[in-house]
Design a protein that fits this description.
Layout (H helix, E strand, L loop, with lengths): L9 H37 L20
Protein name: Transcriptional regulator
């Protein structure tokens, strides 16, 4: 019997609904993450640049004992 595409097996409908729900959740989380990243980037750029403290020279190691 040839498939005409009129009927889908029941399992496909459930898996499609699950996939759609999962993608909706993932897209929402990605949008929230992107918004947070943009907000934090804007806050970081809005701050005045902080001068880096002067770098200290590393302490010399004592000479090795023989």
């Amino acid at each position: 019997m040839a498939e005409t595409g009129l009927f889908k097996p029941k399992g496909d409908a459930k898996s499609e609904a699950t996939t759609k729900t999962a993608r909706t959740i993932i897209e929402g989380e990605a949008a929230a993450r992107q918004a947070k990243t943009e907000r934090l980037r804007a806050a970081r750029l809005a701050r005045e640049p902080v001068e880096a403290p002067p770098k200290k020279k590393p302490a010399r190691k004592p000479a090795r004992q023989k």
